[in-house]
Hints:
With 316 residues, the protein is an alpha+beta fold. Helices cover 22% and strands 31% of the residues. A hairpin with a 6-residue loop joins strand 6 and strand 7 (100-110).
Amino acid sequence: MDWLGSGVLERRLTPQGQPQKTWSQPTDDSIWHGHLSLASPGQLAAAGLTEDDPPSLWQHQGAWIKPAALVKALLKHEAIELQTRAEVETLHRNTCTGEWCLRIKNHIAMSNMGRSHTHSTETAPHVVLALGAHTPDFLNQVLDADAMGLHPIAGMVSWGLMPAATTPALPSFAVNGHGSFVSGVPTTEGAAWYTGATFERNATTTAVTASGHAHNHQRLGQLLPLAQQRLAAQWSDASQLKGWTGARCASINRMPKVGLFDETQFPGLHLLSAMGARGLTLSLLCAEVLACHMDGGPAPLSEKLMQTMRCQPTLT
Ligand SMILES: Cc1cc2nc3c(=O)[nH]c(=O)nc-3n(C[C@H](O)[C@H](O)[C@H](O)COP(=O)(O)OP(=O)(O)OC[C@H]3O[C@@H](n4cnc5c(N)ncnc54)[C@H](O)[C@@H]3O)c2cc1C
């Protein structure tokens, strides 16, 4: 229901949809050995491709996963207490106790009565700001701090319910490399396909737009011409085409930002953000990096990589 370790076909296309430089099978001593291989004729055929197309890769351990299911599973930890609908409005450090004091607006939705809210406070010696695309505004407006060049990138995914039996079938595995495509995903409305996403820099817009669908449609045509063909009827019928939008947080060097925010001005205040469009895989690793740092344990990454992930104000 929530994930499928089906392997992933990676098409090697440039942002313009052109073939990238050729790639050869990894040798036994390569770090890619066992993770990646050239896609077999059978895998290509299942995606409607042939050996005459630019070479594609097969990621053996690739999978699709529903983010909400992953998050829900991770939250099942005895040390985690979840407070939803709780918006941190302000925070300040109590200089006597050294603790951070968070003012929280608790949103309440009452059926037939609109919305209301209460306020509460929480205190803690350490706070981790993990606010996704809201991070730059929070740093600027609540902490009056430099946003380190972090910026939002709005995105839209197009999706629809699987059409009645198509021949040949849509690929049973996920495909990426120039946008992505996944089909046969169980939802409460029936099995669905998804493709996308758009990238709109410095935007947090959440409207589903015809231009977003058009962009995703055009890229699907380059990624998987056969799938685009199979879904043509759905794409021309607005009532069958659905959209999902969200905003990512990105940094200037495209690396996540993890660690103490500014030890001198904000001791005990940490950041975990800017995972771009890779939060599914990066979030666990970044959480481990942060936990090791807070515990004083050895970092799970090289110093060189850690440097690229440091929270540093932009030079003015
Ligand atoms: C269209 C699209 C497609 C994507 N596709 C992929 C993909 O294929 N693979 C992948 O790995 N990633 C993908 N991503 C990226 C992925 O969603 C992000 O990397 C990930 O969600 C980042 O996690 P986060 O916890 O940093 O931020 P978020 O998931 O954005 O969570 C931040 C949370 O903080 C809350 N918050 C903000 N301000 C406050 C406040 N003041 N008080 C309390 N709470 C607050 C927000 O409500 C939100 O719940 C995609 C994103 C988009 C938009």
